Structures are given as structure tokens and as C-alpha cells.
UniProtKB/TrEMBL annotation, chains A, B, C, D, E, F:
Keywords: Nucleotidyltransferase, RNA-binding, rRNA processing, Transferase, tRNA processing, tRNA-binding
Family named by the database record: Belongs to the RNase PH family.
Domain of life, source organism: Bacteria
Entry protein name: Ribonuclease PH
Name of the coding gene: rph
GO MF, one example: tRNA nucleotidyltransferase activity
Free-text function comment from the UniProt entry: Phosphorolytic 3'-5' exoribonuclease that plays an important role in tRNA 3'-end maturation. Removes nucleotide residues following the 3'-CCA terminus of tRNAs; can also add nucleotides to the ends of RNA molecules by using nucleoside diphosphates as substrates, but this may not be physiologically important. Probably plays a role in initiation of 16S rRNA degradation (leading to ribosome degradation) during starvation.
Sequence ranges assigned to domain Exoribonuclease phosphorolytic in this UniProt record: 16-145, 162-228
CDD domains to which the protein is assigned, alphabetical: RNase_PH_bact (cd11362)
Entry EC no(s): 2.7.7.56
PROSITE patterns: RIBONUCLEASE_PH
Stored PANTHER family: EXOSOME COMPLEX COMPONENT, EXOSOME COMPLEX COMPONENT RRP41
Quaternary structure annotation from Swiss-Prot or TrEMBL: Homohexameric ring arranged as a trimer of dimers.
Upper lineage: Bacteria, Pseudomonadati, Pseudomonadota, Betaproteobacteria, Burkholderiales
Length: 244, 244, 244, 244, 244, 244
């Protein structure tokens, strides 16, 4: 497979956009991370609440859940404000359910105790990959919230079992690419979001053929790219958390 | 990997449940198919409407869209009626978006002309795999609607480019299984829905680790199973349509 | 009054369409009945829930309630899905309130104990008379649910005091007709739905002049027809339940 | 049948409560009538709008429609405000649909021309019979709106074909009663709302057995009462309109 | 500043429209006041409920809250019914929040005890100043509800600390005017609603420049007018309550 | 009046918190301003849309409108996400209506032409004064959007007639203070939001007595403070826009 598609700013097919992770971006949340994948900017806050949803009451276990939103003009053209329209779109719900599942997969809910960590992922600026940036940033915010719980002696050991990060891959004009930006995403034939743990397992895999169907060989190429990208993101997370 | 999990009714790990496809299940729709995967029963109707949604107006192209619902007591315990609650759940929206994308992938929207095919997939009885049964049945209903359009001389050639079918696979107690029924789905560690075309390409791939993350080897095993299952479903579709 | 209107398939003015009652149509509900009045097909399930709505809490009495829905393409042309629109129409609410009142009228709520029977009536195919078919079928489903409660020793005697069934009657081109099908319903001047018990009392009576007002003599003719039709339906219920 | 139930204020079983009809109760509406059935007070306004709903566009015909509401403290204990709750109850929708059908039955929509008469019936004080008072008052308001249309030369002849009025009847402790007030309505076994035209035909008939089913003889007794009551209401309407 | 604008019916710039306060306008509410500012008529009911909203539970304090509505044809042209549209407008919410705050300001919530007074202000006829009439009338209704609580010995001393009334002022064609009616309100450059207590303090002040911004001098002129008008309203309240 | 209340960080009673205005904070909007009043941070974007709402169609005039939102964890404790709850609160609607009116007051809508400027004010971090920061920042964003329109030659002269800015003032423990932060706002007796133009006129004035009513003298003291604060904000706006 020969990479023929020319990416913006001479980016290599297997290169991430510059990743920046800023902790303590806002003051009040137990975790507050601005994560940037190039021009995509997502504010991920983690809020600890000392109660659980009904289905966990009395279970001794906690809960980790996520909500996702996009500021109306995060995008190239203004979108409707979901609060004004009175409901969240199917896309928004799909994304926030994905973020929630991804984070829960690395949490020991019993060790968390009967409390909830709310992860709010709000897109300040969108240039493709907002859901993968959200998952990657939400992990760092959740880690900070857990550190706060430990510092407050509300828990005695971390309920976090592993790290988790996510990246998009896709095929544009026949070329498999890592970390699609908006113009690439719009032009791609196949689009895949991959969520993996620090130990290399898959948590979520969502591949969609936009135009033509994709082959198993193409899928394998995309997963090799994703594997590389996620390793870089895990390193960025560790560095941001001072664990590197 | 040794298959140790014992399935109901001596089913082999790589066996589908009995598949039944009944065309003309109701009288008025242009396509009306009851599809059964074992105890899962989904009524898929295809309705032709001579207009398109706003984003297609004047484009010369048609549209294919899907809605999904579940009768309140399709399931083991009664669920809320979404119409009474006043909104569709995130799960429902996720599924109907998946069905719509899967079907559009095999349609030449220009050849369809400026009209819409509505695919309504309503679950009469649910025992796991409702979304994959819905996609597989909706294809047959859409095919019947297209035959009706041809018979009515509203179009001169079929806009259907390829067949499409879907199946679930998963890992239960370490065993990769094809076509999960409800009790298997509830117990599984990894759950994957695979949508493929008649020519063997992937349209959608959605894998989720329910408990532990899954490895690339496990994923490959699951995709081999899915590949086999989908081939059987495509044959069942052809037979139902009298094309075999 | 001379019957001049010619009905489809040589049906007599005072004849029901063929009635078919299929019990155990789905697997999971405590009662699950497909009822057919000619081409009208309604799936009626009865679900037992071991709790009551707030207004019955602590009363020692149970509750019987109904919900009604129509699959989008049950009809000649596709209707909106109420769950997608986000609300039930006034017509839907009117019908489900009627079904609930009709069934409660034959129930001894104290003998039911503090539990609820939910009757879900979903129209699979609509050719007129869906609400009357729903009431007639819901009675059989409720009867099965009560048998299940007795078999489970949750109650020691049946809370069902009497049977209940319903039929439509109307005046089309001056001719009083029993059990209107869709084309007759659309053309009728007067339309009446009658709900009666096994012992011949009225439970509900809803007559509407679509065009011209109707006289007392016409009303009496309609009620004679309804009386005959309901007797036939009660017999069909008894036969389906093996009580004949 | 012997009347044994003692009514408040020595009212006879076949007597209406005092009926008062006040025209021009508010200033701006084309028709604005306060109607009182004893302590029940409903403000009925008729508003002319020079357009029709989509299903009447281009038909040359007009439309007559009704909305019903109850002030939160019209009743003995305060009820929720429907606007605050965000939806109209099933009961409200049922009533406003009944009012609309009843009034349309006496209108020649072609003679009305492509315009809409909106009838807003708002209950200021509720002591039983609000829907029948609403229909009876709405007719007077509609009549005033039609007079306004004639005076404005927007139409050249009245589209009103006949008068229409409504009353409730019911059986309380075995006694058939005319025009139930709230305490009677709460205690009744059978409750029937009857809508009739000036020429004595039925427009709507809605009978409900609250407790035990009712017999044909009881129904006939109720309809005799209703017939008498409606005659009195028609006279009151004519007098209010200066037509007596 | 010279008053050049000619008001309807020779009204002076600093004159209120005729104020009428009718207590016991309806039968069931603990307070029920029809207040009229000229052609503006608002029905204000006060309903006592023996419980408080969640944020006051267990506090020992009560709550005073308000809801506002407008009958669809209270206005010159018919407006949508908010209950039918499924939500209250921003304007409605703004007004009912204002009424609630204004009344709470003169209530000693601890002396009220753990109960709620609901103030429902429904506009029967609107000719400008509905929110100020609502506040002024709601005070009288609340006073009656408190008298009822005292008479019922549910409380031993009145929780009302002071009277409260409200009026609008505005600048029309350069002339500062008291108590704007609808045509003045539509034409005004500046519109201010002033809420004051019996002892002369401000509770709420809401000034809006409709066209050009207004100066401090203009604001002072408006507040002088408001001060005079409120004094007259306080006198009218006292007289209506038999306290004058 | 002696200032006795001690403010955080030795702030004087008549001092603003540090004001920072960052233009071009995001990439895609025609105007994108982050405004900070101390710890309060609001992102204000201005989006140009080449169409107007229905009430302006064909008028030759444009429209300026605003929406307001708060990220769930902008505050000390997490608030509900309005999009998830399915509606905007009364407070949110009140604020966005205020922002819209304030900005329209300085716009010549005819000079804008038939297009809309959407002002989205999203609170990233909230420490009191979010609505006044939003108005002050929205003006700068709107100015940038107008410069873009001029640069694109879509308009030939600026429709902005004057600058506009807003500040809160209040009385805390008897001391009149400028620019309340959250803890002051929670403790204040009187809270007033003042919106003024560059030429010193009032656009909006909203004063609320939280506890005790306030006197005319207090109001005058507050307006003197507001006047000073707004002058400082106008200077900050000019400096940010390079007009100083």
C-alpha cells in the first residue's frame, strides 16, 4: 500500500497531530484537563459526586459516566445549541455512551465505593477526532479526580486498573492515515475509532465504511496505525501526569 | 483456543440459530419481512415515499433511512414504551443510525431518484441480536420495495449495488461464539457486531469489551466466525428472495 | 331500513369479519395474544408487575392499565413513529384510556392484590376496528396473565368478574353495519364503538356523527347490531380460552 | 325507577343547574362567552384566523378547532399547570377533540371559506360538566364570530347549519340524574355526555360505566333526561343570542 | 420636561388607570382575586399546600412561588397556548420568577412553616402591565390565604412582613408616563417595571431601553412616577382588604 | 456610607476584578473572545449567518441574537447539563434574552442587512458576574464579526452605533460594592446588573432585593459605582480592539 495522499503541514500518514494536555485548566473540578489534538480542543472535567444512580444503590460499587457536548461555534459553521433545541442528537448520545463505556472498562467500581465520577467532555474547537480526544483527556481528568479522592482519604487505593486512550484512523484516497483531521474525515472512505488500554487490549472498535466497504487487509493496516498512535497517546498521558 | 462454553440446544460455537425469513408478512408496505434468528423476531417494513429530507432536496438523489423500536414486552421483563416516555433512548438511536448507514452503503442513491425508502425495524420478540437481524431483514424488505418500484416503472434499474447482512459474535467464558442469544450476550466479555456486503467487504464493525479488554488474536477469531455467519445469512437472503 | 351498501367479500351487514385469536403468540409475556378481525391484527400482551402506581400504594388494591401503539407501516400509508416524534397523539391517548377503563370494569382490583397488569396493544396491521380488536384481545391476554398468577399461587382466586369485548358499528350510505373495515369507516356517517360485558351490560359507548347527526332510531339499530357482534366475540374468546 | 338520591339545593333529578350565558365577556375576541352551569364557569372565546391548517390548504374549505384548559385552581385542590409540566394530559386532549368535532358537525366548512375559527375553552371554576358547558358556550361564541364575519363582509351567508349543545347525565345510587355536579360525578356508577343539535340529532354520545355495567333500559332513561336538558340549553342559547 | 403625549381618555401622565380589586372571585382557592388595571384583568389565586419543594424540606421554612399564564385570546390577536406547544416561553418564565421573588421578599418564610403558597396569575384580558397587576393582585390573594391559615389555626401569627405592589412606567415620545397601556407600551422608548414595599423600599427594578438608551435624569423622573403610582396601589390593596 | 466589608485580595469597594479580553480565542467564528472578570471566564463567539428569523424576512433588516450556556462544572459544584435535561432553565433564558436586547440596542439593524449575528456566550468558569462579562465580551466579538463583514465587502459601513458593556453592583453587609464575585453575590442584600452604552446611557437596569428592600439612596450609590465600572470596561474593550 503506497501512501499517496498529501496531508496538511507535511504530516506523515502514521503521525499524530501535536498533542497537548493541560491539567488544572479550570479551578473547581476535581479533574480539569484541556486536551488538544492539533486544532481540536476538548475540555474534560471530572466531578466527584457522593452518590450513585439508582441501579447501583446499595451495591457497594461506584459509577463512572460521561456527557459530551459541543459549543455551537466549535465547528466551521455554527450548529444548533442542543440545550435550546431541547434534546441531544443521536450522535451526541452515541459519543457520550462510548466515552462512558471506555472509562468504566479501566475502573474497579467496587474500589471506587458508592460514588460517581462525572466526566464532562465539552468541545471548544472541533477539527476531527473530538471523541478520541475526549476519551484520552477524560482519562487524565479521571486520574486527577482519583488522586483528589486519595488525598482526601475518601478511598485508600486507586480504583484505576489501567490507562485508556483512543484514536481515529481511516482510509483517504486509498491511503491509511492516523488521527484524521476534519478535511480528511470528510473525504475518507473508511473511518475507524479505536480505544485501547495501557496493556494493549481493545476496549472499543468502531469502523464504518463511508463509501465503499473495506477489506480485512485494510482493517489490519488501520489497526497497526491505531496501535502506534495509542502508544504515543499513552506516553503523553503519563508525561502529563508526571508518571513518565 | 478451546471452546468450552456449552450452548443451549447443543448449538456449535460457529453455528447460527435457525434463520427464518418471511416476506409479505403484512399487506400494505412495499416490503414487509419477518426475520427470525431463533427466538429473536423482527418485523422489517420498507415504505417508499416520493420525497426526500431537506438535505437531499434538488440533489437528484434519494435517501434510505431506518427507525428501530421494540414492543414493550418483546423482552423478558417489560420495558417502558418510548412513545409514552416521550423520547427514544440512546441505544435506540444508536441502532437505527447503524441500520440506516448499513443499508445506504449498498444503495446507489442517484439511481434511486428523489424518493425515500423508510425501513422500520420493530422487534416483536427479543432474544439477542436484534440489530443484526434488523439489518439482515431490512435488506430483504428494501429489495422487495425496489422490485415494486421497478414493477411500477418508477425506476428502470435497481439502485441496489450489493447485498448486506449482519451478525453478532462474542467471547463467553473464553469461547468465541457466533450469533449470541440473550443469555450469552449478558454473560459475554466481548461483544462485536459485524456488517458485511455480499462481496465480502466490511460495512460496520462495532466491538465492545464488556469486562476485560480483548486482544488482536481474539478479534481475529471473532471476525472469522462473523465471516462464516454472514455467508450463511447472505445465502438465506438469496433463497428467501428466490435468487438462489 | 333496507341494507343497500354492498360490503367486500359479500359480507352481510350484521356479520363480523373472520375473528382469529392466537394465544402464546410471543414467549415472554404472561399473556400474549394476536387477535385478528379480518385484516386488522393487534398483538395484545399482558405483563404482571409486582407494584402499583402511586395512587394505589398501600391501598391493598391492584391496577390494570393499557398502552396502545401502531407500527408506522401498519396502515396503507406510513405514519410517523410516535417515539421519534416525542409524543403520543391525542388519538392514541384516547384509545389507550378506553382500553384501560374497559378492562378495569371487569376486574376486582382488591382480589388482584397490589400488583399491576400492563396491557400493551400494538397494531401490526390496521384495517379498521383496531381499538375494538385491542379490547377483545386484551381480555384474553389478561385472562392468561391471571391464570399464570393463579398457577404461581400469587393469588388464590381470579379477580376477573366478567368477560369484556368490543365492536364497532356504523351507518354507511344509510345502512347500519357491524364491524367496519377501513374503507367503510372512512365513508361512514356515524361511527360507534361499543364495549360490553359477558352478562350483557354496557361498559363504554362512544358514538360520533362524522357527517350528519344521527337519530335515536338509528342508534337503536346500531346497538342491536353491536349486541349481536359482541355475543359472537364473547364466544370466540371462550373458545380460544378453552372455556366453550 | 324511583329517584331516591337527594340532590343539593333541592334540585330535581331532571333539572339543570342555573345556566348563565354572558356574551362579550372579554374585549378582543370575535366571540367571548362566559358560560355558567351552576358553579362551573367556562370562558369560551372564538378567534378568527385568516388561514387554515395544512390539510385544508387549497381546499376552499375552512376549519373549526378547539383547545381546552383549566386554570390550576379552578378545582377544589390545585392541579398542575399543563404549560409548566410541558404537556397536555390525555383527558385534556380527549375533551378538546370532542369540542372540535361537536362544533364542526354544525358548520358548513365550504361556506366558512379558507379561514379558521379557534375555540378556546378555559375553565375558570370547575364543579362538574366542564366539557358540556364548554361545547354549549363555544357554540354561542362561534355564532358571535360568524356574525362578525358577516358584518365585516368576509362571508355573505352564515356557515352555521344548526345549533349544538351538550349535557352530562348519570346514574347515582340507582337514580338517573341530569347535569351532574362534581360530588355527583364522583359518586356515579354511569356517566354519559350527550351532544345534540338543534334539530334533535345526536352528534356525540360518550357513556362510561364507572363501577357496574349499565343496561339498555338505564341508557334509555339517561337519554330521555339528556334530551330534555339539551332542549333547555338550546333555548338558553337562543335567548342569549337574542334569537328567542 | 414637558408632557406632550396625549393619552387615551384624557388620562394624566402621572395617573393610574382605574384599579379594581375583587376578592373571592372564585370559590375554591384560599385566596382568589381579580385585579383590573383598566382593561388589563388578571386572576390571582393563592393555594396553600402542606408541603415544600425539595430545597426547603426539613428546613422549618415554607415557600412562596408563582406561575403566570395568559389565556390564548387575552390579547388583541390570538397567541399560542403554551400547554399545547409543550413549553412556557422565556417571557412567561421571566415574569413568574419576578412575581415569586417579589412576594417572597415580604414573607417571613420561617413564620409560614413548612408549607407552600402557590400564586397562580392568569391573564384573562391583556392591555399592558399584566406583570405589575399580577404582583399587586397576588399580594391581596396571598393576604387572604394567610388569613385563612390564621383562621384555621395552622399558624399563630402572620408571616407577611410588609405589603408589596408593582407598576410600570415608561417614556413615550419623550414623555414619562405612569402605568402604560398596550399601545403606549408598544410605542415606548424606555420601559421600567418597579416593585416596591409598603414601607417604600425597592424590591425589583427592571428598566429596558427599547430604542435609545435612557439617561439618569430620565430614570429619576420615572422613579418619581412609580413611587406615586405604587402609593396609590398600596392604598387600593388596603381598601380591598378592609384595612384602610 | 462607610465601606466595612473586607473583599478578597484587598480589593477596593469600587474596583473591578482584573479584566482580560482575548480575541481570536478559537479559529472558526467570525468573532471569538474569551473575557475574564477575575475567575469568571466566558467564551463569546459571534457567528454570521446569511439569513434572518421569520419576523425579519423581507424587512431589509438584520437581527442580533444571543444564547447563553454554562459548562456543567464551570461552577463550584456540578450542575445539570441543560441539553441532557432537555430544556434551558428560566435563568438561562432570562440571561440570553438580556444579552440579546443589550446588543441589539447598539446595532443599526437596517445597516446590518438581512443577516443574523448569533452571539454564543458559554461560561467556562463561573465566579459571579457571568451575564455582565458575557455582554461585555459579546460586544467585542460582535465588533470583530462586523470587521469581518466589512473586510468581505458584505457591508459598506458598520452597523454598530455605540459600544455597550455591563457590570454588577450590590450591597453586602451594608457596603455598596462593584463587580461582585460569587461569595459576595451569595451574601448580598441587593444585586443590580447595569448595562450602559459608550455614550453613558442606560440600556438595561435590573435590581433585585435578595433580603431587605433597598432605598433610593442605596440605588443611587450603586449606580455611581456601576457608572465608574462601566467606564473602565469600555476602556478595556477599546484597548482590546486596538481603538484606544
Amino acid at each position: 500500500m503506497t501512501a499517496t495522499f498529501r496531508r496538511a503541514e507535511e504530516r506523515a500518514a502514521d503521525a499524530l497531530r501535536p498533542v497537548r494536555i493541560t491539567r488544572h485548566y479550570t479551578r473547581y473540578a476535581e479533574g480539569a484537563v484541556l486536551i488538544e489534538f492539533g486544532n481540536t480542543k476538548v475540555l474534560c472535567t471530572a466531578s466527584v459526586e457522593e452518590r450513585v444512580p439508582p441501579h447501583k444503590k446499595g451495591s457497594g460499587e461506584g459509577w463512572v459516566t460521561a456527557e459530551y457536548g459541543m459549543l455551537p461555534r466549535a465547528t466551521h459553521t455554527r450548529g444548533d445549541r442542543e440545550a435550546a433545541r431541547g434534546k441531544q442528537s443521536g450522535r451526541t448520545q452515541e459519543i457520550q455512551r462510548l466515552i462512558g463505556r471506555s472509562l468504566r472498562c479501566v475502573f474497579d467500581l467496587a474500589a471506587l465505593g458508592e460514588r460517581t465520577i462525572h466526566l464532562d467532555c465539552d468541545v471548544i474547537q472541533a477539527d476531527g477526532g473530538t471523541r478520541t480526544a475526549a476519551i484520552t483527556g477524560a482519562y487524565v481528568a479521571a486520574h486527577d479526580a482519583v488522586s483528589w479522592l486519595l488525598a482526601q482519604s475518601k478511598i485508600s487505593r486507586s480504583p484505576i486498573k489501567d490507562a485508556v486512550a483512543a484514536i481515529s484512523v481511516g482510509i483517504v484516497e486509498g491511503t491509511p492515515l492516523l488521527d484524521l483531521e476534519y478535511t480528511e474525515d470528510s473525504a475518507c472512505d473508511t473511518d475507524m475509532n479505536v480505544v485501547m488500554t495501557g496493556s494493549g487490549g481493545f476496549v472499543e472498535l468502531q469502523g464504518t465504511a463511508e463509501g465503499a466497504a473495506f477489506s480485512r487487509a485494510e482493517m489490519n493496516a488501520l489497526m497497526d496505525l491505531a496501535d502506534k498512535g495509542i502508544r504515543d497517546l499513552l506516553a503523553a498521558q503519563r508525561q502529563a501526569l508526571g508518571l513518565a
